[in-house]
């Protein structure tokens, strides 16, 4: 059984003391494929070191996280553009809009989001979207730029069924389902049970959003198995089928 964690921050300082053991625990649980989103210029080196050390397990994305967007957005975007030119990546991400903490740089976030979508299309790469308190803003932009070249993953999806249907209506788009689906009062379970496994990929977003029974603790990719078990329960499918189809979906969208 091969599971794919489509979104994990393996380079995080939260794993400084046991990074190697953490990756080994994931592989031991069947999580053989680990896709890492970039945050900004500070995360590139650590991410690429892991790709070099674990080329059969770790796969990198390149993008500017909306929470790293500020008045100097052009400088960060230039770094992203250069990285995309110099190296091979599986996606442009994570990118998007985050209005939870601060709305000061909304215009810059929208600019960065649009620009990185443009680059993804030029390179025939999927986008991996971060959305927090910004469904309306993100969907409006996606509606505008939607065409045959738009493809990607709506990372850490926590929306309602109408939003889910809107997103998968873009054809080559998947919903990233993580630990929140195991939270009793989050309501995501009620949405997932109405969806087809063919529209889903699995993720941890580690070290954040650990699934039950680890909620509130540091998350890690080995806990993806808990997410897969919950999705299997909700969709009345064998865990092996959930692993196989979500991994197949990840291969389709990432190309590897």
UniProtKB/TrEMBL annotation:
One of its GO terms (molecular function) is exonuclease activity. A divalent metal cation 1 binds at residues 7, 9, 94, 205. Keywords: Exonuclease, Hydrolase, Metal-binding, Nuclease. InterPro entries: DNase_TatD-rel_CS, Metal_Hydrolase, TatD-like, TatD/YcfH-like. A divalent metal cation 2 binds at residues 130, 155. GO terms for cellular component: cytosol. The keyword Transcription regulation does not apply. The keyword Metal-binding applies. Belongs to the metallo-dependent hydrolases superfamily. TatD-type hydrolase family. This is YchF/TatD family DNA exonuclease.
